[in-house]
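To the structural biology subgroup,

Please find below the input and predicted structure for Glycosyltransferase family 1 protein, which we are adding to the shared reference set this quarter. The sequence is reproduced verbatim from the submission form. If anyone notices a discrepancy with their own records, reply to this email rather than editing the shared folder directly, so we keep one authoritative version.
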Amino acid sequence: MQAYKNSKILYVGNLSKTGNCYRRMLQLEKLVDTVDAIDIVPHIYASGLFTRLHYHLQIGPGIRSLNKAFKKKVSEQKYDIIWIDNRSYITASSLAYAKKTHPGTVLMSLLIDDPFGEFTRGWKIFLQSCRRLDWVFVQRPQNVQELKNIGAVNVDFCFRSFDPQWARPYAFSSKEERNKYRHEVGFIGTYEEQRAEYIAYLIEKGIKVKVIGSDWLGKNHWATIAPCYAGAAVYGDEYAKSLSGLSIALHFLRQGNRDQQDSRTFEIPACKTFMLAQRTPLHEQFFEEGKEAVFFDTKEELLNKIDYYLQHPAEREDIAEAGYKRSYASGYDHLSRLENILKKITAVTEEHLVTQDINKI
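Predicted structure (tokenized):
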């Protein structure tokens, strides 16, 4: 039995059922005996003015009520691990209270977004409290030193991952359903200027890129993109259908977040769909170029590769199949990633306890 199997975890995060935070929690429940949860949504995402205060300025009644609920949980139950998923609204004083109440509890954060990138509003509490955490797991190489510079102790990597129940090859029930979702080239994701620029370029060159996602209406290049726009963000089966219906799924990373990979890095191959993604060192590490995925740097290279792989369907399908197999063989799913975190935490905790015992001799 793994050492972490008997652990009790208090999981704090946005538990909206369409999000990966919730899906990561479901996978943790398979790995340990007990997972209790605090959903930040009823505290932070109240209506109107308070939501903006909570999210952007990190002040207001929801911050206070969340931290009160956190302290109540900690006072009632001893947890082996307190797991904060992504953006934290748990204050430094609340973390200090948790440590004082149960000194052996491991305090950790799985940091999905970038508190040091372009979108820095709303990170005040995390930046003030991260030195209280025993572990911070990050996505970006730059974040390691940035966090250590402000007092974080153990900073390690846990990259994005996919949920096999969500990102999967979708078996269409009929020819009509298949035809509804079939499209040669598409992109699923939120508007960003570079994404719009590249997609508009492709459309002007005759590539009808199907675009699904939020915040596109009325933005730069909208006049070009509008005829190809297929609607707002999709989730669950609609997400799997939309990806599975594409011959080529484009993958643009978010520049403001300094991303080298994100969830779609793994969700597209997990749907057994051919991924044509921006080239980054991490993308090249996760998938072998030309065999498991294909990458691009410029608009011109992107266009050339779309033209080539549309004309070579057998080669395209072989790459999609290999990317799918790599996703499972290398453990890019939620369960495998989270298990690696637990192994790291447990190994260091056990080493610390052994050292303490030796020092008592």
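Summary notes: Residues 8-161+334-360 form a domain with the Rossmann fold fold (CATH 3.40.50.2000). The chain has two domains: 8-161+334-360, 175-329.

Regards,
Lab coordination
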